[in-house]
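fyi for ur records
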Amino acid sequence: MQAEGWGDGPFAGLLLGAAENILYELLPCVTLLKADRVAVILPADGAAAAGGQDVARALERLGATLKCSVFAALGGPAADPAGLPASCREAERVLGFRELLGGRGLFTAEQLSGRTGSRTVCSQAEEAELAALLAGGSATGLRRFVSRIVRAELEHPAATPQSLQAFLHSLVLSGHRWLERALEGTPAPGYAPLPEAGGQAEEEVYRRLAAVMERFHASLSESRGGYIPKAVAYIRDHLDDPNLSLQQAAAVVHLSPSHFGEVFKRETGQTYLEFVTGERMRRAAALLRESPAKVSEVAQRAGYEDIKYFGQLFKKYAGVTPSEYRQSVREGG
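which gave:
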């Protein structure tokens, strides 16, 4: 059993101590106070029987008396003392679902049997939305995005602690990969694995992504042509748009197309068209190496509607056709 509502530090310990005393008075049990929970052993034919109804009533009274939220997990019955460790492990597993179950109530492993895991990676559309928010620099927009995405996963009926953790990792890692692309040639901050998803999952994800956004915009002010990295990030995030133009990129950084074109060539050493074509070819090559997508789909995702024209450009870039390039990769060439 876990309880919250008295804050952190010593008050959290006082709350658990008070909760242990009340449970001992209300139920025929043996209790053990731990650092962040109370372990309770009940007779299998008594208060724990009938689906734990007596336990549920006791927990409800405990919460009302101490004005706190209570979350409890009921392990399976043990035939003898040797079976208690297995029952405790089952209860511990259920406790891991606390955030996914709203943080209060009494639950059993049987109630969670239908939870087989939700998605573990964010979608391309979500990655694109995140990239636009990071480049735009809106902390409010980023917080709303994180809140919407994370809460949707928390409320998914099939979610497990493992699937939630993997999804949050995917979301934060997507932000770091975007930063690496946007700051090409500049080391991005190291990625530290997320702690296990707890009651602060949403806040932790926002904090990590806000740090990515701050790092990107700090780099803009540090560089001589500070708006060029922002334009480059925009270009890389919109390579699949066949109509991606110099005018669009210039508008993102609030410059006239002519001035932007001059500065872009000075800072990158390439014209806008040369840069975009090179980026599209690199994306196409990566897709051919790493995905089973058809050549026509690769062309579209690289921003080309005319497959024949795409093939001509790719052969000029790689020296072989897209199909030949993929085959050489498979053969280890």
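DSSP finds 14 helices and five strands in the chain. thats all i got for now
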